[in-house]
Amino acid sequence: MTAPYEQQAPIWQGGQPLGSYVSPIPVRRATLGDAVASEWTKIRSVRSTMWTLGIMIVLMVGIGVLVAWGVSISEATLGEESALPLGFFGVLLGSICVITLGVLTIASEFGTGMIRTTLTACPSRGRVLAAKSIVFFLLVLTITTVTATLVGAIHVAMLDGRAPTGQEWLRATFGVGLFMALLGLLSLAVGALIRHSAGAITLMIGVVLLPLVMAMFMFSSSLAKVQEALFEYSIPSQISVLYAVSMTGSGPNGWDPVFIAAGVTAVVMGFAFFSLNRRDV
């Protein structure tokens, strides 16, 4: 029969247990800034960030240059139109990269089990989601705005057309950057809800492409209003509005796509906060 384990009482000396260690690092309460610093270290140290944002930059700049070169060697002229809307094609394809990174920012942690370590280090789940959102939003906003500005400058330099106004420049650069960052943030929220990378990416690509594809095959006159709404509020149409080009001639205009994206993202992010706080990992 095994003898019962007997725990020896600690030997105290001068009010402290003998052999205890006191860290010289001051102990303080963790803040949102600490969580942001942690998430910044994560997002810049994984390969998915370099690949997705690197491919996005290549698509936006590469397609932008190809389109400008094609227009410059053709007999077509821009006339009274500005060259900025030619950046639409690269941004539309680049949005797939932003969606992928947005989902992977949180869903990959659920897939690998890393989320348990994250929540052990920072038990406040709302703080974790807020830190991920802040880091991702600012990173995508900065890179997309800079890239869109570079593409716009290339188009204006290569092509003869009307000089863009200040508002057109602002929407085609900062507005596009805001819209792309919000679209990525929406993907991050969907990733937090679904917790599966492939499923969340597939769902978001469907959200981008499906309304436009469905509208193209609605030939019945009874579905005319539904078809018009799908055309007006589809993601590709919203991006084109920021370039002062509308697919339908009606619907949102100016900065409306940014406001719509902000509203939808806020609602889905609210569900993501609720889900993260209520569900186990």
Characterize the structure shown.
By secondary structure, the protein is mainly alpha-helical. Helix content is 70%, strand content 1%. It has a two-stranded antiparallel sheet. Helix 2 runs parallel beside helix 5 and helix 5 packs antiparallel against helix 6. The protein is globular. The N terminus is likely disordered.
Order of helices and strands: EEHHHHHHHHHH
Mean pLDDT across all amino acids = 88
Alpha carbon gap, first and last residue? 41 Å
Secondary structure tally, helices = 10
Low-confidence stretches: 1-7
Helicity, in percent?
Answer: over 70%
Class inferred from helices and paired strands = mainly alpha
**What's the shape?**
globular
Overview features:
281 residues; mainly alpha; 2 strands; globular; disordered N terminus
Question: Gist?
Answer:
The chain is mainly α. The protein has helices at residues 32-45, 47-73, 88-112, 114-121, 125-158, 166-194, 197-216, 224-233, 235-242, 256-278, and strands at 12-13, 16-17.
Give me the secondary-structure topology.
Layout: E1 12-13, E2 16-17, H1 32-45, H2 47-73, H3 88-112, H4 114-121, H5 125-158, H6 166-194, H7 197-216, H8 224-233, H9 235-242, H10 256-278
Antiparallel strand pairs: 1-2
Helix pairs in contact: 1-5, 2-3, 2-5, 3-5, 3-6, 3-7, 5-6, 6-7, 6-10, 7-8
